[in-house]
Amino acid sequence: MKITNIKTAATSGHGMHLWVKVETDAGITGLGECVHGGVQAIAIIQELRPRLIGRDPFAIDALFEELRRGHVFDGGFAGALITALTGIEIALWDLKGKALKAPICELMGGKFREKIRVYADCQVNPGMDFGQVQAVVDNVLARGFTAFKIDVDGGEAKNKDPFNFTASQWEHERMVQLVEMACRAAGPEIAVAADVHTRLDVPSAIRLARDLEQFHLMWLEEPVPPENIDAMREVKRATTTPICAGENLYLRHGFRELIEKQAVDVIMPDIPKCGGLSECRKIANLAELYYIPFAPHNVASPIGTMASCHVCASIPNFLVIEFHWFHREYWTTIIKEKTDIIVNGYIALSDRPGIGLELDEEVARAHQYPGTTWFAE
Ligand code: MG
């Protein structure tokens, strides 16, 4: 079997959902999805296309590494190049699964679990009163989720310098209060995480993490900017609140120091962004050496989400995967299966080959990302 063509399309979902279709001379196609690559990733895939045509689509890891090393001077460690390769890689896995009539996770060593726990990223915002927080949490729990995440940064602070990372007394108290309300609304059976979006300096983050210890959070996410791993470790070592980071890192090279220094308690690679299925399986295996759980960041459509679930099924240290609140119509109608893949807070792996879901191109095209082409030659 040989690759005969690579085509792209893009839809407006959570930002851009970029679709990569790999065609073969056997008539079998694979579809991948990547996120956060932008129009740059589309251009990169077009540039890589001639190097893929005529190649063996089963040599997934070797093709990925050949293209990455061949462009190492063009950003072969992080960013749009890696995300473009990720879209191709996921399409190749879908194709290989279909060709071999096997779900991807069965080709990755088999399943540790039949269904994947999902947490809801929900819109609890600073400034809400307890009644408003309770209403949001009730909606999440009514859908069967057993875990959710809130954003605790943001909102208006008096005299706040937008570039300074020091939390004022007012901001600190507001963040603690928001977590307290979310945990009270959820009750003790539900796992709650809180995201700070890299907004604090080390002392502000340590003070926050310590004052949140009483709530036993699932994790506190990116309390300090993620690019300084030593600073992250200072926070991690000063508190029993679990610290989570990694949604802005790429490849196992990007995660190595974070894991080796045990600078976090939980890692959160974005699988359809940071290197794809093989790479994230390797990242999870590295983390497992230190007993660090794997909780992927996720803003993909059901297809990218299900692709990520094949990795989550095939590793021992999976904790929970994210679901972002898209408008419901996009989430359920963009796939031919016309269903919500999340049932009672879990996604079940199926016996269908490849990723196991199909894009409804006609419906998806109604969401076409402005200025992009649609699976053009
Ligand atoms: Mg985050």
**Nearest-integer average pLDDT:** 96
Q: List the ions, cofactors and other small molecules found in this model.
A: magnesium ion
CATH fold group of the largest domain:
TIM Barrel
Structural class: alpha/beta
Number of extended strands: 12
CATH architecture of the largest domain, by name, is Alpha-Beta Barrel
Our estimate of the beta-strand percent is 15-25%
User: Mind describing the biggest β-sheet?
Assistant: 9 strands, mixed
Radius of gyration over all CA atoms, rounded: 21 Å
In CATH, what is the class of the largest domain? Alpha Beta
Low-confidence stretches: none
| Intertermini distance | 20 Å
Q: What is the tally of helical segments?
A: 14
**What sort of overall outline do the alpha carbons produce when their principal axes are compared?**
globular
At the fourth level of CATH, the homologous superfamily of the largest domain is Enolase-like C-terminal domain
Written as H for each helix and E for each strand, in order along the chain, the element string is: EEEHHHHEHEHEHEHEHEHHHEHEEH
Helix percentage: 40-55%
Query: Please, how many domains?
Result: 2
Can you give a write-up of this model?
By secondary structure, the protein is α/β, with parallel strands linked by helices. 40% of the residues lie in helices and 16% in strands. The strands form two sheets. Strands 4, 5, 6, 7, 8, 9, 10, 11 and 12 form a nine-stranded mixed sheet that branches. A three-stranded antiparallel sheet has the order 1-2-3. The two termini are 20 Å apart. The mean pLDDT is 96. Bound molecules: magnesium ion. The site of magnesium ion has 5 residues, from loops.
